[in-house]
Design a protein that fits this description.
Blueprint (H helix, E strand, L loop, with lengths): L1 E4 L3 E6 L2 E6 L11 E3 L1 H9 L4 E2 H9 L6 H17 L3 E4 L1
Antiparallel strand pairs: 1-5, 1-6, 2-3, 3-4
Helix pairs in contact: 2-3
Amino acid sequence: MKIRRSDNYVGREVAGEFLLIPITTVGADLQKIKHLNGTAAAIWDCLDTEKSQKEVLERLSGIYNVEDTLLKRDVRATFDSFVKSGICIVNE
């Protein structure tokens, strides 16, 4: 399974917070703005091109000094959350 960013969101850092902002043709839907924690923002950054969970894990393991099982759990949960909320798309 590979995942990529949806074309319907753009990431921006605003006042030290990382936000995903929906791209709309009419106004802004403030209910759909997503706030990402540091790990989720790093995962979003990794997804500048389509990547597998393994590719993201390899990249993040150089950034975070945590156990592989913890990092794998966090990446998987974030992937699931991104897909469920429509901010990322799965390509089998």
